[in-house]
Design goal:
The structure is a single chain. By secondary structure, the protein is mainly α. The protein is built from seven helices and no strands. The protein starts with a helix and ends with a helix. The mean pLDDT is about 90. It has helices at about 5-20, 20-30, 35-40, 45-60, 65-75, 90-100, 105-119. α1 crosses α5, α1 (about 5-20) packs antiparallel against α7 (about 105-119) and α2 packs antiparallel against α3. The longest helix has 17 residues, at about 5-20. The chain is about 75% helix and about 0% strand.
């Protein structure tokens, strides 16, 4: 496992926690474990989203399906920053709106993908 694969696995898990928080919170019960982790990760949402997209592109052919999921997760994490890219804003917002119903599924998928990549 090279450095890019390790960073992508960590970004997948972190992004998955942020995206799948609603579902993870239901599974967690009273302990608020995932809420605490998401609270720590939330300020880094933009960095995690960019990392998911860039690292998935760099490792694109090594795990095509996994990397497509990583790119989609990165797009969902960067939804708040699309206004800063005027040339792509409209198309990125449309794509993000289409992905939003699958936010939790993509998040849980990213956690699973990240764990698979680690082992």
């Amino acid at each position: 496992m090279d450095l890019f694969e390790l960073l992508l696995a960590i970004a997948n898990i972190a992004g998955g926690i942020l995206l799948g928080l609603a579902t993870l919170d239901k599974w967690d019960g009273e302990s608020n474990f995932f809420n605490k982790i998401a609270g720590f990760l939330a300020p880094f949402q933009t960095v995690i989203g960019l990392g998911l997209i860039i690292l998935a592109i760099l490792e694109f052919w090594d795990g095509l399906l996994f990397n497509i999921a990583s790119i989609l997760g990165g797009i969902l994490l960067l939804t708040h920053a699309f206004g800063k890219v005027p040339a792509l804003e409209t198309s990125l917002r449309k794509l993000s709106a289409k992905l939003m119903p699958f936010k939790a599924i993509i998040g849980i998928g990213l956690i699973v993908i990240g764990l698979i990549q680690l082992f």
